[in-house]
Specification:
Length: 169
């Protein structure tokens, strides 16, 4: 059984086996969660990301996929990087957003992670509406077959926390 919990605040202050990064496909850093993770996690994370770019992910990490690195100085064993889709009004990309959660949990299972902290993927710079993103995130995690015991959504602001609380039901 996977328990879903909610927390409000900065995901880089969390303690978990794995912390999920809302990365971009370059894997070389960005704003939002990504910037915060690299700032607080230190250079070891970027170093591993660069190695991934030089080996398996020469063209970058595709949208909807996930890959793990060290968590550097974060209070976690791993960072799982996943690339959310940019929200589009004309195209339904929900399958890709769901895939981020599914693939991250698959990677977590491969690693043996039991507690995983997720941000609200795609709801920042990628503009996904919070209600819809929360519903997709929660439905996907509820439906996932995983050995992860706790999935914790870490919502940055009060509004996001309230939306997730409502959608969790
Ligand atoms: P994306 O590019 O996938 O939209 P962002 O990092 O821009 O990713 O935003 C994703 C969500 O994470 C947004 O709701 C944003 O408010 C939130 N966020 C930004 N910084 C942090 C942080 N340090 N911890 C947790 N959530 C954060």
């Amino acid at each position: 059984m996977t328990t879903i919990t909610l927390a409000q605040g900065d995901i880089t202050a969390q303690s978990a086996d794995a912390i999920v990064n809302a990365a971009n496909s370059s894997l070389l850093g960005g704003g939002g969660v990504d910037g915060a993770i690299h700032r607080r996690g230190g250079p070891a994370i970027l170093e591993e990301c660069r190695k991934l770019r030089a080996s398996h992910y020469g063209k970058g990490l595709p949208t909807g996929r996930a890959v793990a690195t060290t968590a550097g100085n974060l209070d976690a064993r791993w960072v799982i990087h996943t690339v959310g889709p940019v929200w589009s009004a004309s195209e339904d990309r929900s399958g890709l957003l769901a895939s981020c959660y599914r693939e991250s949990l698959r990677v977590a299972d491969e690693l043996g992670a039991r507690t995983v902290a997720f941000p609200a993927i795609s709801t920042g710079v990628y503009r996904w509406p919070m209600e819809d993103a929360a519903r997709i995130a929660l439905d996907t995690v509820r439906a996932a077959r995983t050995a992860v015991e706790e999935v914790r959504f870490v919502l940055f602001d009060e509004r996001a926390f309230e939306v997730f609380t409502r959608e969790l039901g």
